[in-house]
Specification:
This protein has 71 residues and is of the alpha+beta class. The chain has one domain (2-70). The protein has 2 helices and 2 strands; from the N terminus they run H-E-E-H. A two-stranded antiparallel sheet has the order 1-2. Helix 1 packs antiparallel against helix 2. The longest helix is centred in the last third of the chain and has 22 residues, at 49-70.
Length: 71
C-alpha cells in the first residue's frame, strides 16, 4: 500500500507540473495507387490540473493509512 501511495504522489505531482503532452503522428493524406502523400499531424493530450491534485491527496492518504497499520 505504501508503494502504491508513493507512486500516486509522484504521478500526481507530474500531472500538476505537466498538464498534457503533444505527439506527432504521420497520416496518409492521399493514397492514389503509386502516389502517396503523407503529412505530420500533431495530437494533444490534456488532463485537468485537479486530477493531479486528487492523485496526490489519494497517495498521501494511502501512505498515512499504511503507516498507521504497521506502527
Amino acid at each position: 500500500m505504501k508503494t502504491l501511495g508513493i507512486i500516486l504522489i509522484v504521478v500526481g505531482v507530474a500531472m500538476l507540473i505537466w498538464t498534457g503532452f503533444t505527439y506527432t503522428k504521420k497520416e496518409k493524406v492521399i493514397d492514389a495507387g503509386p502516389i502517396q502523400v503523407s503529412a505530420d499531424k500533431q495530437h494533444t493530450v490534456n488532463w485537468p490540473p485537479y486530477a493531479g491534485g486528487i492523485l496526490v491527496i489519494g497517495g498521501v492518504i494511502l501512505v498515512a493509512v499504511s503507516g498507521k497499520r504497521t506502527g
